[in-house]
Specification:
Elements: E1 2-8, E2 12-17, H1 22-28, E3 47-52, E4 55-57, H2 65-70, E5 72-74, E6 78-80, E7 84-87, E8 118-124, H3 136-147, E9 153-155, H4 157-169, E10 173-180, E11 185-192, E12 200-206, E13 210-217, E14 223-230, H5 240-249, H6 253-273, E15 283-290, H7 292-299, E16 321-322, E17 335-338, H8 348-356, E18 366-371, E19 374-380, E20 385-391, E21 411-417, E22 424-428, E23 436-437, H9 439-451, E24 470-473, E25 476-482, E26 493-496, H10 497-520, E27 530-535, H11 543-548, E28 560-564, H12 566-575, H13 578-590, E29 591-593, H14 602-608
Parallel strand pairs: 1-7, 9-11, 12-15, 15-17, 18-27, 20-29, 21-23, 27-28
Antiparallel strand pairs: 1-2, 3-5, 3-7, 4-6, 8-10, 10-11, 12-13, 13-14, 16-17, 18-19, 19-20, 21-22, 24-25, 25-26
Helix pairs in contact: 5-6, 8-12, 8-13, 10-14
Bound molecules: FE2/S2 (inorganic) cluster.
Amino acid sequence: MAYKIVIWPDNLTTTVNDNENLLDAIVTAGISIKSSCGGAGTCSQCKVLIKKGTASFSGAGKLTEQQLSEGYALACQTYPQSNMEIEIPATSRLSEHQVLVSQDKAWDGTVTEINPLFKKIKLELQIPTLNDHSDDVSRLFNALSAKEKTDPLRIGLEVIQKLPYTLRKGNWRITVSLSYIKDYTEIVDIEPGWDYRQYYGLAIDIGTTTVVAHLVDMETGESLGIEGTYNKQAIFGDDVISRIIYAVEHESGLQELQKTIQTTINELINALIKDKDIKPADIWYVSCAGNTTMTHLFLGIDPTYIRLEPYVPAFNSIIPIKAVDLGLKTNPKARIYCLPSIASYVGGDIIAGAEVVRIHKQDKLTLFIDVGTNGEMVLGNKEWLVACACSAGPAFEGGGITHGMRAMNGAIEHIRVKPGNLDVTWETVGNKKPVGICGSGLIDCLATLMEAGIIDRSGNFLPLLLSNRFFSIDREKYFILAHAEVSGTGKDITISEADVKNLIRSKAAIFAAIQTMLKMVGLSLENIEQVYIAGGFGRYINIADAIKIGMFPDLPMEKYKYIGNSSILGAKMILLDSETRDDTEKLADKITYLELSDGNNFMEEFVSALFIPHTNMQLFPSVNYVSHSE
Ligand code: FES
């Protein structure tokens, strides 16, 4: 039996079968809804309002009695028993805000010399005579070798088939399309004459939460457009583990996930070429940086063993794939290059960042940290390199925090609480009314709550405070960052004691990973000479506050540099420079992966770091809180 479901305010109609739930209906209708737990009924984010119809419910998650009585239900736990009408509130939607794609101008990762992975070359060939009757392919190769360094050069059957006619039609003038593959260059197309359409490439950061793409002019290196969106795979779960489980446990799960990321990227391509005289066929090369799981899912490769001990991926490095095999809206002959990974939890996005900061060329001992759901880091210099990953949780990406969000319009990215009267001031992305708080705001928030004496060093709310900014529900304590009257949602924007503890666990995991890695190579914090920070915090991160909360080492500020989304920068650098591409492969080979769960003291370090800033204050000599708990 199938039921008709009308979704408001979109006024979309879709159908569900007996055994399907409202989340399935919403996904089928193409609406992006929050569903971090992938439909397990535990995140309570897929809240919908039932306006008409009957259903059976398999759970209510964290919905309150009042919400239930008002008609709210969890989409993933609601099985229609009749035709229904439902409303998806704005707070349950993923597309509520624009993904922030602007870069921190502090770092310019552009390449100065363009030697792109794809180019078109104008050639004029010698006209054959009775004294010079070498074959067309040899003639083409000779002319090309005289003009370009292309050794070794290959040509496919399809191109040879059209070569005789094309050469003569163009009166021996042709345009040759060259793709740099791996250790060789391939002639992927030929056209008669020298009038050719402009050609473009795409640099893509395939993140677990968001996907960002640059449309790049391959002749000038200029980014003609940048677009970002949520990774539509979020409907299968927030993190890589939920998605691997979905891929493994559902029939066609892997294909669904692959199709979903293809759709996400194709929508970005549509947005990038819209209103420009550019067709999908003008896109000839794609460079992608993603974590190991995202890359497996994008390529449709079984990710099962990434999450099973001893955590072995199917591949780390792979030659560029033909676009036609991946269903991307580009020229079907385009090549898709995925940056190499080095382990299941240190992927191409980290290698991209390591390449951006040229860590393998540095004389100084350099630490590169990318903070996302995992905290991933590379330590070393031109002599040696090690990397590790820790599970920091999605807190600094806004996940698992009451009003946490990515750095999008309305996200609080900077905040201060005045000790004494507890007045709160903030800055938001886009100068909009606050609707939540992003990573950089959360770091600020933890530090300022400490300084204002609202929390103690373990993150407990202190009992002495009386202010209209505090309230409790079911013994959970909340501090109001923005009152309903001034917020963009018409509701209070808060941080709870549980949020604070969650953030402390995240920052502790990052600091513990740094300490463990240093100890494994026999070094200590003061040996670090420079630190590069990457991640989706927002437009900037307050490093001083990150030190104050014990997330990053207590080093002089001049040793730090925030480089924003280094994954997309690395992907773009590679797209525009074949030597950088080769160098990235070598860089990945040079890095030794350290497994933190394997016979080291990570857990001990983690427990010690569960204080603000740390149990051992000697590690943070510059941090001096006035303690309100003692
Ligand atoms: Fe429905 Fe998480 S509770 S998706």
